[in-house]
Design goal:
By secondary structure, this protein is mostly beta strands. Helix content is 0%, strand content 53%. Strands 2, 4, 5, 6, 9, 10 and 11 form a 7-stranded mixed beta sheet that branches. Strands 1-3-8-7 form a 4-stranded antiparallel beta sheet, with no helix packed on it. It is globular.
Amino acid sequence: QVQLVESGGGLVQAGRSLTLSCAASRSILSFNSMGWYRQAPGKQRELAAIISTGGSTNYADSVKGRFTISRDTAKNTVYLQMNSLKPEDSAVYYCNAREGQLSRNVYWGQGTQVTVSS
């Protein structure tokens, strides 16, 4: 049984920063990867950022240079630092974890709302 709990969402003005947290119920190093996805109304859920067990990271082009994914293994927590926020960043942000061969086992948090006002 895996639990992922997101926090840190809220309402923020464009150009400001916000940091999201995802607390896992077990060691985050036990997953093949962890990531942040987001879904805006009327749009498909998309990957924003991902970090592998080894620490390598990847970002969607839309957030590259503005968002940073990081982790604190002692706290079983993954973070998403979001800078220079834009209204188009508004979405529900979901924490994701994958394990197993070819990352076939997938876990999701309940999501946290981020709203960026112009």
